[in-house]
Specification:
globular; mainly alpha
């Protein structure tokens, strides 16, 4: 392969170790993990500071404007809001290191349990949206590049530009109107809201296996989190009706959420492929008489993948930002809705926990993208 500095016209972000020697590759991975630690600390610091800068009094937001001064004083002491902000941050970091995000001010429940209930839905939605955008976007970009300036190229790029331009809330409403109302009497009907059809329940896998887990423990929270991934829980328990119904409820939200990333991935794939198709080794492969599909998929696409993988990693993080509107439109109880409600209620523990978890996921995805460069290049 070409050196990454000359790959598809895109500058290299890193120099990648040689896979023939495992030690440099291991050192590279460890270095990338260590570099992620100060990033996560910075995210926690900024998140903590921004939550304290939200206008309004948490006591008044939670208890109402008629709450007396004595009640608010007890409220601030109960949640440690009477201490100086630096002291609050030190206490907060100490709890985070122990895996304790505290309790929700609004719900009076452990934030870890709320995370285990809400985060799985958003993860399932994000992954399905990403799969949709990648499976459709990359082929669109390849077709557009290979058939440059043809009707297929023009049509593909028009679709991509329209996809980038459509707001998520408008597309979501149009999809719900089309598939839930206009096509309600056909096999194409899709549920307009909710996560499961009434009457279909998800029995946690650990209950079916007879595991006895102590509440408010790390194992309990992890088991709850995994069981609330309905698709995964249905596969593990063999409940295929649950799997099908969960996917069916996420089709429209995933399309609405994944359309903009799809368009961006398609345009990036086209641009990267056009640069690679001009290279000498592509002309050499064609001159050797290799099949056209082999030249495109094995020689051109593999060399064009670095910028494509980069944009996929970035878009995965952006998908969580778009989840708020998508979840609101389709009535899904995920991270987006509860985070919005927590902001309006000044529920600091939930705001901090969900923001940190989402940002950590974003950092991990980008770390995996960096590591994948080693294997792709």
């Amino acid at each position: 392969m070409d050196h990454p500095d000359n790959l598809g016209g895109y500058p290299a972000l890193h120099y990648y170790p040689n896979l023939s020697d495992g030690k440099p590759m291991f050192q590279y991975i460890i270095r990338r993990i260590l570099l992620a630690i100060p990033v996560l600390f910075g995210i926690m610091l900024v998140t903590f500071a921004l939550t304290r800068m939200i206008p309004g009094d948490p006591c008044r937001a939670m208890l109402g404007e008629k709450a007396t001064a004595d009640v608010c004083e007890r409220f601030t002491k109960q949640y440690g809001l009477d201490k100086p902000i630096p002291v609050q941050f030190v206490i907060y970091m100490g709890k985070i290191i122990q895996g304790d995000f505290g309790s929700s001010i609004r719900f009076s429940r452990p934030v870890m349990l709320i995370l285990a209930e809400r985060l799985p839905m958003t993860i399932e939605l994000g992954f399905l949206a990403l799969i949709f955008s990648v499976v459709i976007g990359i082929p669109m970009g390849i077709i557009s590049a290979v058939k440059r300036n043809s009707a297929a190229d023009v049509a593909t790029m028009v679709i991509a530009n329209v996809g980038v331009s459509m707001p998520v809330y408008w597309l979501g409403l149009m999809l719900a109107y089309t598939f839930a109302l206009l096509l309600k009497d056909t096999f194409l009907w899709l549920p307009p809201s909710g996560r499961l059809t009434a009457g279909i329940s998800s029995v946690p896998f650990f209950e079916m296996l007879g595991w006895q887990l102590e509440p408010d423990t790390a194992k309990y929270y992890i088991a709850q989190f995994l069981s609330n991934l309905y698709i995964l829980n249905g596969i593990v328990t063999g409940n295929w009706k649950l799997v099908g119904d969960a996917i069916k409820h996420l089709i429209m939200p995933a399309i609405a959420l994944g359309t903009i990333p799809l368009a961006i991935i398609a345009r990036m794939t086209r641009s990267s492929m056009l640069e690679v198709l001009k290279q000498d080794y592509i002309r050499t492969a064609r001159a050797k008489g290799l099949r056209k599909n082999l030249v495109i998929l094995k020689h051109a696409l593999r060399n064009a993948m670095l910028p494509i993988v980069t944009i996929i990693g970035l878009e995965f993080g952006i998908l969580f930002a778009g989840a708020l509107l998508t979840e609101s439109i389709f009535g899904l109880a995920g991270v987006g809705r509860i985070l919005y409600e927590a902001i309006t209620a000044r529920d600091f523990p939930i705001i901090q926990a969900f923001t940190v978890v989402i940002a950590t996921g974003y950092v991990i995805v980008n770390l995996l993208v960096d590591i994948s460069y080693i294997f792709i290049d």
